[in-house]
Amino acid sequence: MNLDIDFVRAQYPVFSNSGTARWAMFENAGGSYVPSQVVDRLHHFFQYTKVQPYGPFETSIEAGEQMEAGYRAMAGLLGCDPDELTLGPSTTMNFYVLAQAIRPLLKPGDEIIVTNQDHEANIGCWQRLAEFGAVVREWRIDPQTGELAIEDLKSLVNKRTRLVCFTLCSNIVGTMNDYKAVCDMAHAVGALAIGDGVSFAPHRVLDINASGLDLYLFSTYKTFGTHIGVMWGAPSVLDTLEPQGHYFNRDLPHYRLNPAGPLHAEIAALAGIQAYIDALYAHHFDDARLDFHARSARVFDLFAEHETVQANRILAAIRAIPGARIMGQKQAGISSRAATIAFTIAGMRSSDVVKRLVEKDIAVRNGHFYALRCLEALGIHDAADGIIRISLVHYNSVEDVDRLVEGLGRL
Question: How many Cβ atoms sit within 10 Å of the Cβ of residue 291?
Fold first, then answer.
């Protein structure tokens, strides 16, 4: 069964507006479009229930119920209990708060492993713990391929390791790392495995309880929702962390790792992600017996098949450009490489390439995308110009890719 792109795009208001529909959108890794199911819930909350939630009066009760639906939607997507989730303003902020919650557990000389492939959100917050005596060690990419080798991690992990912090999918290289192998290696020495799923979550559904991860973070504004960061923690781990919210909220699951009040309307609108996925499921499949996590997995399988075919068309077009250098694997694969493609062209500034594509109403960007350490390791020292990044998701049509391939060919 193939993904019905026409049905998918019909769910997005942006594609029915002549001013915005002209763009072939390939900057989805920076933030995805939002379907009407999410837009409608956000609009409804602001219009009718924009009050302090969880109070005794009718509007406040309704506001709280809408927020709980948002928590349940994210829990259902991961296959976990809603009490295991913290919904903060962004993944970067959630990582910072998490690092502060873990800090009291660390003793001077305890080691933290980070990569130089990650977004800075999953590096900088851990580097700061060196101020308190932690030793931060770097799992480094191959400077030619951008890949992380499991064998290199083996040489870093030891009895002093307390945290292994890594990305499930690089926002530059596009590689889907073997998270189960990393988790096994961390657990073998009693360390926690902390995964950044921001660039993974738009493409695949994670079974959180089978993943081996102890903590997992991703962003809903890159998974077709509002601007929220989702942080999941295994109950046994959450119970050990120092609460970061107000002292009188330390026993409230959604508040103990949230220093600020939750974003009411944005959280309520997350229930629209479930409604959107369910609309796609009902359109493509007949079996209604599955739970939401299983339904999501089947829908995202369709996404992955479509994205992989189109990504390989784009990769082939880039390989045909003289002087082009693709970061990471040269072929996309459902379980190996996401449809996030970074490249440079010898003799051309990345900004000039982007300008020429944008002139054709093809939305792309250049820069370091908050993965400056990765670019430096790859030998790209002009961070402002950086790499050209093309990132597609399931709503990108064949026609979008046709236009992009033509534009690349003209380079």
Answer: 9
Beta bridge partners of 325: 344
- Hey, what are 140's tokens? 């480094």
Quick one: 323 exposed, middle or buried, by C-beta within 10 A (0-12, 13-18, 19+)?
exposed
Q: How many residues does the chain have?
A: 411
341 and 229 in a single domain? The answer is: no
Do 256 and 349 fall within a single domain?
no
Same domain membership, residue 116 and residue 99: yes
Q: Which residue has the tokens 């809603």?
A: 82
Domain span including residue 361: 5-34+291-409
Q: Give me the number of domains the chain comprises.
A: 2
- 67 and 187 assigned to the same domain: yes
List pLDDT tens digits, range 100-145: 999 999 999 999 999 999 999 999 999 999 999 999 999 999 999 9
Whether residue 30 contacts residue 172, with contact meaning beta carbons closer than 8 Å, is answered with no
**How does strand 215-219 pair with strand 229-233?**
antiparallel
pLDDT in tens, 26-49: 999 999 999 999 999 999 999 999
Q: How many CB atoms lie under 10 A from the CB of residue 381? A: 9
